[in-house]
Amino acid sequence: MSQQLDPEPDEGSLTADRDGGILRLTLDRPSRRNSLSQPMIEAFVAALTEAASDDTLRAIYIRGAGDDFCAGADWVATNDGRQPRPRVGHLVRRIPHTSHRVIELIQTVQLPVVCAVRGWAVGLGCNLALASDFTVAASDAMFWEPFVARGFSPDSGATWLLPRLVGLARAKRMLLLGEKINGTDAADWGLIHRAVSAQDLDGAAEQLVGRLASGPTVAIGLAKQAIDFGQHATLSQGMTQELHGLELACRTADFKEGLAAFQERRPPEFHGR
């Protein structure tokens, strides 16, 4: 006698839309607070990987559909008993190529990444916001690292990102005590770029991503790379990295435009080249 299984849960999707030089990535699974299913994470990796080598892009904008940003990885679906128990070491083999890869790509892609957060940003969702270059959140949004509260240790960059953004004491409050931080406090702590009212969130994020998309894309990417490199380098090594970036930036059309605009006392018109 065959067993009838319940229908598969909604796996959601990652919507990728091009708007000129802006790539808009929307986590679209509002029925599960945009928790990331395995197909969504795989689509995220693919979209960011493609964006990294797309010379027509100038900025990336990440947001969630509905009332929440992202409730993290969908561990409920992963552990629902539908699939055979994986071999020992499954997480160590898989996660570096999925959720961890998403965080790495956000950190290393030479494009500015803006994230808009409303509602909950939990676990992997919280770390997506922390890894982005600029996160704008509603003042009543909630950032939560629930790993220890669920009985397992942090992942997706939480232990690397948080201490660098807010210091050890506050990082331990979030990671070991599981404290939830609202958008206003997150901005005050330096966890995110800015907190605004819920009704102003979309406008503030759009204004920021538009400003970045109209900037000197190559120079912004090289500056981002140098900042990241400097997190684990000496001053001398950091300045050497800056020199390599400067050598490349000075060869761009945007550099020439920046000089011309300065000489002519007008705003520059950068084209990302």
Automatic annotation (TrEMBL):
Residues 1-20 are annotated as: Disordered. InterPro entries: ClpP/crotonase-like_dom_sf, Enoyl-CoA_hydra/iso, Enoyl-CoA_hydra_C. Keywords: Lyase. GO terms for molecular function: hydro-lyase activity. Transmembrane segments: none annotated. It comes from the Bacteria. SUPFAM superfamilies: ClpP/crotonase (SSF52096). Pfam families: ECH_1 (PF00378). Belongs to the enoyl-CoA hydratase/isomerase family. This is Enoyl-CoA hydratase.
